[in-house]
């Protein structure tokens, strides 16, 4: 999420037409088209963040600026030439790194939160703990994971929360 993404399409000689058909997981579909005989591009229902990377007659790649969860879905490029039609399908999945916060609760127990990640993050502790993480789904498709260590009278001097996520791992330490 937040970065630009470029989806390439096979470049063939003697292109007659190029069409990008975009079917987001949520929302209306959109289409970008190019006709070589008229040297004309057309767009239907596409947001400004979806556009040709350069010029479709030279490179039919698609660029998505500042990718967000709303961009998830199927993207299919169809190139039409005298030799036939060539399809390049993609399914775009958006990863959202969670925001890590580590604090101490009213009882002096470490509490780790991996907020608004997609997919849900995994949380572990050093030293190892028998904590059971709680997950809360959000309307935007992200998930917040909360994990608490109950010290049960032991004197934990330094506790580290490790958040594992496909978009990158994070860790923080705290003394409660």
From TrEMBL:
One of its GO terms (molecular function) is signaling receptor activity. InterPro entries: CD200R (IPR040012), Ig-like_dom (IPR007110), Ig-like_dom_sf (IPR036179), Ig-like_fold (IPR013783), Ig_sub (IPR003599), Ig_V-set (IPR013106). GO terms for biological process: regulation of neuroinflammatory response. It is found in: Membrane. The keyword Transmembrane applies. The keyword Glycoprotein applies. Keywords: Disulfide bond, Glycoprotein, Membrane, Transmembrane, Transmembrane helix. SMART domains: IG (SM00409). GO terms for cellular component: external side of plasma membrane. Pfam families: V-set (PF07686). Residues 1-93 form the Ig-like domain. It is a single-pass membrane protein. Gene3D superfamilies: Immunoglobulins (2.60.40.10). Belongs to the CD200R family. PANTHER family: CELL SURFACE GLYCOPROTEIN CD200 RECEPTOR 2, CELL SURFACE GLYCOPROTEIN OX2 RECEPTOR PRECURSOR. This is MOR1B protein. It comes from Bucorvus abyssinicus.
């Amino acid at each position: 999420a937040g970065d630009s993404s470029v989806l390439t399409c096979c470049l063939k000689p003697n292109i007659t037409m190029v069409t990008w058909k975009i079917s987001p997981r949520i929302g209306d579909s959109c289409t970008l088209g190019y006709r070589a005989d008229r040297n004309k591009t057309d767009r239907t229902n596409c947001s400004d963040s979806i556009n040709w990377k350069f010029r479709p007659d030279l490179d039919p790649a698609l660029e998505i600026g500042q990718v967000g969860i709303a961009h998830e879905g199927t993207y299919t490029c169809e190139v039409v030439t005298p030799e036939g039609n060539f399809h390049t399908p993609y399914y775009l999945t958006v990863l959202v790194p969670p925001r890590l916060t580590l604090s101490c609760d009213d009882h002096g127990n470490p509490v780790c939160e991996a907020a608004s990640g997609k997919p849900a993050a995994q949380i572990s502790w050093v030293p190892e703990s028998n904590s059971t993480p709680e997950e809360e789904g959000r309307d935007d498709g992200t998930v917040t994971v909360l994990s608490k260590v109950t010290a049960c009278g032991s004197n934990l001097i330094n506790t580290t929360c490790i958040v594992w996520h496909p978009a990158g791992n994070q860790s923080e330490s705290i003394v409660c």
